[in-house]
Amino acid sequence: MKKIDIPQENNSTLNGQRKVMYGTNENGEFQRINYASSVEEFATITAVEEYQELEKECLKEIENDISSPIKYFMYKNRMDLPTLSSVVDMFSFRVKRHLKMKHFKKLNDKILKKYANAFNIEIEKLKDFKI
Amino acid sequence: MINDFSHSQFAHCESGVVSTLLTHYGLKVSEPMAFGITSTLSFVFIPIVKLNNMPLIAYRDLPKNIVKNIEKILGVKVFKKQYKDILEANLELTKLVEEEKKLVGLQTSVFYLPYMPENMRFHFNAHNLLVYGKEGKNYKVSDPVFEDVVECNEKDLTKARFAKGVFAPKGFIYYPTFIPKDIDFTSILKKAIKKNAKSMLTPFPYAGVKGMRKLAKAIEKLENRKDERYLKNYLTHIVRMQEEIGTGGGGFRFLYAAFLQEAKAFDLDNDKLQKASELITESGDTLRYFALKCVESAKKIDKFNANEISEILRKASTLEEEAFRILKTI
User: Fold this and answer.
1) Do residues B154 and B291 both lie within one domain?
2) What average pLDDT is seen over chain A?
3) Inter-chain contact B236–A89, Cβ cutoff 8 Å?
4) Whole domain around residue B93: which residue ranges?
5) DSSP conformational letter for B242
6) Cβ contacts of B318-321, under 8 Å, gap ≥ 24
7) Which of B160, B178, B196 is the last residue of a domain?
8) In this structure, is residue B246 part of a structural domain?
9) Both B250 and B298 in a single domain?
């Protein structure tokens, strides 16, 4: 049986942990072996950086009064629209409106509190959002 | 608390937890076995279902497939419960681990687990872990993808157990309550392998071997797409689904190959098992190479060769088709 290649590279995303995968020993028997893969590292970092990029873009949109702070915190918490809608228990078309500044400005404290809870922040962080 | 609990690290969370649970309660079942007898290997590509704006790609059956099916397959009894009430969920878990000294499996979100490295925390709700004790406000946790046991305070664990969204765990707990004496593994394995072969060879074009080819075709179509950011995200999304989310490498293929090897001890057609195991190992290797090429292309988009990459995926699909055609006749 062909020997399975076990990558022993660096994967900084695991904070020093190493995962296991199944590989074969000299006798062709399968066993769990620790590994670290730079391919996985790159994929993870790309996903993390995508959210950071979305956050940055959102800040600009907030400056221009287009997007609301809710959108910023949504990305900061690595959520997408369906996830956030589920967490605050509202229809996604409604949440989508709240991501826009002009609708956000009209929101009452009760609704804002829901979002603040979802993001685990104080309601003031939403109301007096500072870039 | 269980004093003599010994933690093991596994390639995949659900199969790892079920393996540890069964073994702890008296039935030695390895991780590949737990994965294989529940026919969990799969491939699904559904472009219209989006996660973070990316198509749904999965290399295994739906979450909870192993926990749900293990009862019927092995004849074991598993206590399973979801909760509406958070307080009740915590009281019962505390009672189970403190007073009854039980080892309990839990479904949780990944995002709210404080011991999870920052870069690994995404909103994935079908993570599985074990709780084996409690000290003060901290649960003693055996997370199968970690090298060692960890602790998690009640507040954070509760948040992870009651996270909302797709596959919301709703405080789901499970542990075996009855293990039968005589289990006919030969017929169980035969059935499970055939079932998996059938699902991998399904005529449905978005699943199994055909699903892999569908994804290959979708990648080819990316050739004309000029949006670099989208391409980079798309290619690394595939890699994450295949490698990163605890698949034991090569989209669970090595795990399944290990299962086929282990099945050789149970009086089946060993030549077929050996041949199929080798083919699926080769497919796993091919998928790993496919992942490497995806990442290389994501790093340098101008080097992205859609045809070359989709050809590698097609090669893996051919290997798997051959393997499961053999296994279908076992």
Assistant:
1) no
2) 94
3) no
4) 13-37+77-178
5) I
6) B319/B279, B319/B280, B319/B282, B319/B283, B319/B286, B320/B200, B320/B209, B320/B212, B320/B279, B320/B280, B320/B283, B321/B200, B321/B201, B321/B209
7) B178
8) yes
9) yes
- B106 at A interface, C-beta within 8 A: no
| Partner B contacted by A78 (CB < 8 A) | yes
pLDDT at B3: 84
The total number of structural domains that make up chain B? 2
Same domain, B158 and B192: no
pLDDT category of residue B248 using cuts at 50, 70 and 90: confident
Report the residue of A39, A74, A95, A117 to disrupt the B interface, i.e. the one with the largest count of B CBs within 10 Å: A39
Q: Do B145 and A34 touch (CB under 8 A)?
A: no
CB contact under 8 A, B284 and A23: no
- Residue A96: CA count within 13 A, CB half-sphere: 5
Interchain contact A87–B (C-beta under 8 A): yes
**Same structural domain, B219 and B301:** yes
Is B170's pLDDT higher than 90? Answer: yes
On whether both B166 and B297 belong to a single domain, the answer is no
What does the pLDDT look like over B73-124, one tens digit per residue?
A: 999 999 999 999 999 999 999 999 999 999 999 999 999 999 999 999 999 9
Partner A contacted by B299 (CB < 8 A): yes
**Topology adopted by domain A42-127:** 434 Repressor (Amino-terminal Domain) (1.10.260)
Residue B105 confidence (pLDDT): 98
pLDDT at A1 over 70: no
pLDDT (tens digit, 9 = 90+) per residue, B113-154? Answer: 999 999 999 999 999 999 999 999 999 999 999 999 999 999
Residue B30 C-alpha, separation from nearest chain A C-alpha, in angstroms:
11
A13 CA: distance to closest CA in chain B (Å): 5
The whole-angstrom separation of Cα B130 and Cα B7 is: 10
A/B interface, count of CB pairs below 8 Å? 129
Q: Which two tokens stand for residue B196?
A: 């998996």
